[in-house]
Design brief:
Elements lengths: L4 H10 L7 E4 L2 H11 L3 E5 L12 E4 L2 H11 L3 E2 L2 E2 L3 E5 L5 E10 L4 E7 L6 H7 L4 E6 L7 H11 L3 H19 L3 E11 L5 E3 L3 E4 L11 H8 L2 H8 L3 E4 L4 E5 L2 H13 L6 E4 L6 H12 L6 E8 L4 H14 L6 E7 L2 H9 L6 E3 L3 H12 L5 H7 L2
Helix pairs in contact: 2-3, 5-6, 8-10, 10-11, 11-12, 13-14
Bound molecules: guanosine-5'-diphosphate and manganese (II) ion (MN).
Length: about 400
């Protein structure tokens, strides 16, 4: 799992590696709030998992709130080599005397860790490796022996870091090694690692790849996954406060309650279909929630039929049915839909649904029959489903 810069810096901080104070922002207004908190001048930084953000215009210094607005507005939504910027990291700007490079990674061929340090930081290390390979000091590390302070000193000296940066860099390298090993990373890279005019050595950028094989012992990594792995549909659902998980199939599912939503996915699979999603609208199946849910499902181009499966409890059947009817007026739905409504006041609810029924909006009293109908309407072409759909 690759971390965003701001997550990498959080990880660094845990191991005592000095990073600047800052905060994330998803909007221009949030960016100003974070900048005010960090203290001017600040750097506005695009959070995308691709290098060279600086060159692409994704990193800008701002001296006041107006400049933050300008840069945040420009950078949010920017496309940096195929990565759209959705989040910014705003940190207090550092004064830079020198820019260095430091990393630990795994050299699989050598079956050892590889440390690299260079006095030529702030540019892509691949470019340095090509133009001036001697500018990179390298050290292979036997994992069973580890990385000593003396090793760190050797690297720093070989790389030719400035005198006043050496002790700070030796400390950062040791902390970075702990971050790499104890933090179960496959890669930790600091570019640039800077020397400030007042003699501090400080991480200005962070690239961290975590070793997924170790995730079982890092429950805290779940927090890193959030925005990273959300697809468009999940982002939309999250913005509407819905419990939604995108799946690969073509039957859109809306249910109330996590258990029912899961059973609904199961029954769709059972009759030969494939769910496009898990969506639990929870207790309040009112028009607003239903319209939001339908909008999210509708935005999924893989969906070919929708299965709404509601069991009225505290929310009564007629409220659910009214919610669906109103939602249908608000959202124009691209796929046929099957509604199974049961539970409290189901009869009243079904009577209301009659008013909106058509050959594209069908009510079906049982979960199994409704699932079959939805799969049939999706026209899967996957053999058995059509036959099963007919055998009611
Ligand atoms: P990258 O281009 O994606 O690697 O992004 P970086 O975080 O490495 O930033 C690129 C460059 O922006 C750095 O090499 C610095 O020259 C500059 N930069 C980033 N943060 C600061 C800062 O706090 N102060 C100053 N003066 N420059 C910065
Ligand atoms: Mn960088």
């Amino acid at each position: 799992m690759d971390l965003f810069e701001y997550q990498g810096k959080q990880y660094f901080a845990r191991f005592g590696i000095p990073v600047s104070a800052g905060g994330v922002a998803d909007t221009v207004d949030e960016a100003v709030v974070q900048a005010d908190a960090a203290g001017y001048p600040v750097v506005v930084k695009a959070q995308v998992q691709v290098g060279g953000r600086g060159k692409a215009g994704g990193i800008k210094l701002a001296n006041d709130a107006d400049e933050v607005r300008l840069h945040a507005g420009n950078i949010l939504g920017m496309d940096i080599r195929g990565h759209v910027v959705r989040r910014l990291w705003i940190e207090h700007a550092s004064d830079i005397s020198r820019e260095y490079y430091a990393s630990f990674t795994l050299d699989r061929a050598a079956k050892k860790y590889l440390a690299m340090v260079s006095a030529k930081g702030g540019v892509e290390i691949e470019a340095v490796a090509e133009e001036d390979p001697t500018a990179i000091a390298r050290l292979h590390i036997d994992p069973s022996v580890g990385f000593s302070e003396a090793d760190a000193r050797t690297l720093v000296n070989e790389a030719g870091l400035d005198e006043e940066a050496r002790s700070g860099a030796v400390q950062v390298l040791q902390d970075l090694y702990r971050c790499y090993v104890e933090g179960d990373a496959d890669l930790v890279e600091v570019n640039p690692l800077i020397l400030t005019p007042d003699g501090r050595v400080h991480a200005l950028d962070a690239k961290v790849t975590l070793d997924d094989n170790a995730s079982f012992r890092h429950p805290e990594w779940d927090g890193f996954r959030d925005i990273d792995e959300l697809d468009e549909r999940e982002r939309l659902a999250k913005s509407k406060g819905l419990q939604y998980v995108g799946l690969d199939g073509y039957v859109g599912i809306i249910a109330n309650g996590a258990g029912l939503a899961m059973s609904t996915c199961d029954v769709v699979n059972q009759v030969g279909g494939s769910p496009a999603n898990f969506l639990d609208i929870g207790g309040g199946a009112n028009a607003e929630v239903m319209a939001n849910a339908l909008e999210v499902i509708n935005s999924d181009s893989n969906v070919r039929a929708i299965f709404i499966n509601i069991f009225g409890g505290i929310t009564r059947g007629e409220e659910v049915a009214n919610g669906i009817a109103t939602a249908l007026q608000r959202v124009s739905i691209g796929s046929p839909m099957v509604i199974r409504l049961d539970g409290t006041n189901a009869e009243e609810g079904r009577a209301i649904l009659k008013t909106v029924e058509s050959d594209r909006v069908i009510s079906s009293p049982t979960m199994l029959a409704a699932a079959r109908k939805a799969v049939e309407l999706a026209g899967t072409g996957s053999g058995s489903s059509g036959a099963k759909g007919a055998a009611k």
